[in-house]
């Protein structure tokens, strides 16, 4: 019998199918979304490690950062669009596929990515990570997304503004309904849209020069409008700035810089040597406060309940040869049960744990993790921490209460509750502490409130109290 097979065919093994090609930046973005969803990771913490793993820098790193952060910020809007483009509930779409669809939708509706590139790279990603059937589904859905631009989609999928203003804002600005309601109470209806829009703007990278350790001239960028210690970094890696790499400067939102400035500027009666940052983690405000304390012959104690955050504080307060000037120590301690005698300190900063709804620009996942029921526990903690701070400060000393939230339950109502429960405390007028910052009046007379849409900062609340 004649062997009619092709020469060389005997014992040949079938060649393995080539793996679908994937765009590395999109793959990195997808991995970050998965970590945020599965591991409750924080975007700003997981992103650097994923970028390093894939060797992404420069423009690729910037692309991934915007792709991830923008997708998470606008998740509610994109889910409403996707729901109009699929033939099933989004709850029945595999989570890995939905992550990819959100990434593709952000590219199509909010980034300057050509439609063919956004669709083809997303489909390749889904084919590689899930399979060909899911890839075909993704292709069909994203082609439907291209039918309208973002504004037209919002008009189609958001509730009517006239009959359901909260529902319309929730979809159009991608905030949970309860957050929209709380922010409306805090800022008022006239400024609500501007605030919600500011929450969706990528924040500027702001550096801080710690006095006595670094100067503004060492830092690249334009000086910040309100803080005398900051600059806005226009581009590049902050870690590549020598002063930042050496710990003499750091990355810090201008609003946080202003909190530290106000805490140091508050008048005290008599001695002014012992300062306390009661809730210090991760240590940015402590580092600036310590530098300001050193310049005035004072020393700062930094306390933090969580051990891993206390280690971050210690790292921020160390120089090349040990603790920097102005630091008395870093303690792992519960601020509601502090290991100090009453009246030990001359001034205390209470930057209390809060919902973080004032920092949604920088913490895009926070809006989807917080729940209305979180408020009760946080408010109880805030009141307890302020009470501890007032016990720890001596008569004539000052306590600055700050939160990265404009929610009235965490700001005005906490202060009112504390004042109502004690006869040895009075609320001071804090307006002079940041007199150079316009339109910063808080919800209580004499308090301060910074805003993303007014000041370009996180929405920091400040109230100054004195032990009498």
Automatic annotation (TrEMBL):
<dbReference type="InterPro" id="IPR029063">
    <property type="entry name" value="SAM-dependent_MTases_sf"/>
</dbReference>
<keyword id="KW-0489">Methyltransferase</keyword>
<keyword id="KW-0949">S-adenosyl-L-methionine</keyword>
<feature type="region of interest" description="Disordered">
    <location>
        <begin position="1"/>
        <end position="22"/>
    </location>
</feature>
<dbReference type="InterPro" id="IPR006027">
    <property type="entry name" value="NusB_RsmB_TIM44"/>
</dbReference>
<feature type="binding site">
    <location>
        <position position="351"/>
    </location>
    <ligand>
        <name>S-adenosyl-L-methionine</name>
    </ligand>
</feature>
<dbReference type="InterPro" id="IPR049560">
    <property type="entry name" value="MeTrfase_RsmB-F_NOP2_cat"/>
</dbReference>
<keyword id="KW-0694">RNA-binding</keyword>
<feature type="active site" description="Nucleophile">
    <location>
        <position position="404"/>
    </location>
</feature>
<feature type="binding site">
    <location>
        <position position="304"/>
    </location>
    <ligand>
        <name>S-adenosyl-L-methionine</name>
    </ligand>
</feature>
<feature type="domain" description="SAM-dependent MTase RsmB/NOP-type">
    <location>
        <begin position="181"/>
        <end position="468"/>
    </location>
</feature>
<feature type="binding site">
    <location>
        <begin position="279"/>
        <end position="285"/>
    </location>
    <ligand>
        <name>S-adenosyl-L-methionine</name>
    </ligand>
</feature>
<feature type="binding site">
    <location>
        <position position="334"/>
    </location>
    <ligand>
        <name>S-adenosyl-L-methionine</name>
    </ligand>
</feature>
<dbReference type="InterPro" id="IPR001678">
    <property type="entry name" value="MeTrfase_RsmB-F_NOP2_dom"/>
</dbReference>
<keyword id="KW-0808">Transferase</keyword>
<dbReference type="Pfam" id="PF01029">
    <property type="entry name" value="NusB"/>
</dbReference>
<dbReference type="Pfam" id="PF01189">
    <property type="entry name" value="Methyltr_RsmB-F"/>
</dbReference>
<comment type="similarity">
    <text>Belongs to the class I-like SAM-binding methyltransferase superfamily. RsmB/NOP family.</text>
</comment>
<dbReference type="InterPro" id="IPR035926">
    <property type="entry name" value="NusB-like_sf"/>
</dbReference>
<dbReference type="InterPro" id="IPR018314">
    <property type="entry name" value="RsmB/NOL1/NOP2-like_CS"/>
</dbReference>
<dbReference type="InterPro" id="IPR023267">
    <property type="entry name" value="RCMT"/>
</dbReference>
<protein>
    <submittedName>
        <fullName>rRNA cytosine-C5-methyltransferase</fullName>
    </submittedName>
</protein>
């Amino acid at each position: 019998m004649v062997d009619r097979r092709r020469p060389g065919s005997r014992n040949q093994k079938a060649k393995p199918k080539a793996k679908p090609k994937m765009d590395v930046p999109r793959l990195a973005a997808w991995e970050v979304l998965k970590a945020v969803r599965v591991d409750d990771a924080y975007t700003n913490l997981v992103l650097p490690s994923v970028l390093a793993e894939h060797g992404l820098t420069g423009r690729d790193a910037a692309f991934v950062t915007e792709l991830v952060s923008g997708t998470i910020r606008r998740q509610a809007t994109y889910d409403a669009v996707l729901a109009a483009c699929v033939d099933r509930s989004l709850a029945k779409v595999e989570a890995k596929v939905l992550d990819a669809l959100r990434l593709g939708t952000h590219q199509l509706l909010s980034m300057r990515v050509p439609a063919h590139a956004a669709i083809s790279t997303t489909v390749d990603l889904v084919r590689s990570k899930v399979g060909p059937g899911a890839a075909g589904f993704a292709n069909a859905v994203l082609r439907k997304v291209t039918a309208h631009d973002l504004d037209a989609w919002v008009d189609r999928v958001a509730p009517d503004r006239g009959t359901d203003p909260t529902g319309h804002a929730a979809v159009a600005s991608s905030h949970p309904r309860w957050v929209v309601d709380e922010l409306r109470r805090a800022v008022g209806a006239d400024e609500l849209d501007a605030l919600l829009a500011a929450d969706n703007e990528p924040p500027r990278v702001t550096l801080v020069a710690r006095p006595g350790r670094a100067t503004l001239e060492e830092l690249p960028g334009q000086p910040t409008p309100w803080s005398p210690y900051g600059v806005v970094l226009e581009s590049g890696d902050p870690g590549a700035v020598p002063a930042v790499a050496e710990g003499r400067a750091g990355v810090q939102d201008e609003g946080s810089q202003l909190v530290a400035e106000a805490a140091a500027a508050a008048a005290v009666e008599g001695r002014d040597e012992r300062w306390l940052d009661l809730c210090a983690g991760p240590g940015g405000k402590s580092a600036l406060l310590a530098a300001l304390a050193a310049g005035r012959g004072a020393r700062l104690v930094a306390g933090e309940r969580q051990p891993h955050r206390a280690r971050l504080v210690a790292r921020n307060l160390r120089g090349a040869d040990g603790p920097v000037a102005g630091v008395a120590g870093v303690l792992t301690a519960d601020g509601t049960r502090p290991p100090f005698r009453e009246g030990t300190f001359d001034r205390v900063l209470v930057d209390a744990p809060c919902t973080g709804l004032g920092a949604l620009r920088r913490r895009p996942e926070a809006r989807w993790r917080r729940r209305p029921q979180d408020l009760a526990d946080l408010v109880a903690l805030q009141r307890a921490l302020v009470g501890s701070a007032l016990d720890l400060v001596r008569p004539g000393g000052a306590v600055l209460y700050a939160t990265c939230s404009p929610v009235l339950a965490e700001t005005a109502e906490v202060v009112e509750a504390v004042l109502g429960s004690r006869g040895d405390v009075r609320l001071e007028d804090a307006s002079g502490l940041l007199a150079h910052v316009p339109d910063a009046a808080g919800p209580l007379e004499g308090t301060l409130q910074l805003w993303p849409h007014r000041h370009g900062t996180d929405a920091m609340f400040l109230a100054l109290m004195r032990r009498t």
